[in-house]
Design goal:
By secondary structure, the protein is of the alpha/beta class. It has twelve helices and nine strands. It has a single domain, classed as 3-Layer(aba) Sandwich (Rossmann fold), CATH 3.40.50. About 35% of the residues lie in helices and about 20% in strands.
Length: about 280
């Protein structure tokens, strides 16, 4: 539960500060490592960043080009901010590459808007580094999402430095495109509602019955606020309309039309969300 999640962090206290620099574990797929290095050098943000192998994400993947999937982590604490955001970013089929356009713009926006944040982005089973992605699922093992989040937090300064006691912790789970399937799986099998985030963001990701299933699995019985961004007249609209008909006050819907398009939503959803206001 959120109270347990918050108290776990706050109970750790403060330790010595860390260097704001990128680190990459030796086993990381070389093209991924080079892509992250390029983005990190280009943006030159004074934040802690790391690419690591994190357990809980079916990280040993025989279909992966390197046989192991990675996780991208970033952390920055603004001591003057009143909130600290923990963001779990579930990407779509073009995820975990092109970090200069798919990840670092979010980090730059958060930093420049004086947000205090921890960013956790797992490489999912439909990553561009994976072969044969059709039919694959994520977080399919019981409590796997909860295990992953705990493991990822353990690997960031959040769990070693803690956050200031006067900060409000805001936990956000976001999914773009096929990342909506990941939210569905986390709700159905992976312990999403045991963690109980404050917000769940659907970034043009409400395909098929992913939204319905996540809602019926646990989100509908929780206090989680949701935002559903979708392109009007496309497949993601159908489930959004079904959900909207239920009239739940905790769910907001944002139908978008041209000049918006699928990729533009994915690169803008963090900036558009009320969660970061």
């Amino acid at each position: 539960m959120r109270k347990i999640f918050t108290s776990l962090i706050l109970s750790l206290g403060l330790v010595a500060s860390r260097a704001d620099a990128l680190s990459i574990e030796d086993k990381i797929y070389k093209p991924t490592a080079e892509d992250v290095k390029k983005a990190d050098k280009s943006f030159a943000l004074p934040i802690w960043t790391k690419v690591a192998i994190i357990k809980g994400n079916d990280e040993l993947d025989p279909r992966h080009a390197n046989k192991v999937r990675a996780t991208f982590l970033a952390h920055h604490e603004n001591k003057d901010a009143k909130k600290h955001y923990v963001v779990i970013w579930n990407h779509g089929m073009n995820g975990f590459r092109n970090f200069s356009s798919n990840t670092y713009p979010f980090l730059k926006w958060l930093y420049e808007n004086k947000k205090s944040f921890t960013w956790i982005a797992p490489e999912l089973p439909w990553s561009k580094n994976v072969n044969g992605i059709d039919g694959r699922t994520s977080w399919s093992k019981k409590d796997s999402f909860k295990i992953f989040v705990k493991s990822a937090m353990d690997a960031t300064p959040l769990m070693t430095t803690g956050i200031q006691p006067n900060k409000e912790l805001v936990f956000v789970v976001a999914g773009h495109s096929r990342g909506g399937k990941s939210i569905r799986d986390a709700a159905k099998h992976g312990g999403l509602c045991d963690i109980l985030p404050n917000w769940v963001l659907w970034s043009d990701s409400s395909y098929s019955k992913w939204l319905d299933t996540a809602w019926d699995a646990c989100l509908g019985n929780s206090s989680v606020r949701m935002e559903v961004f979708y392109m009007r007249g496309t497949e993601t609209q159908a489930s959004a309309k079904r959900m909207q008909a239920k009239g739940n006050p905790l769910v907001e819907f944002y139908p978008l039309t041209s000049p918006w398009y699928h990729g533009k939503i994915g690169s803008s959803v963090i900036m558009m969300s009320e969660a970061f206001r």
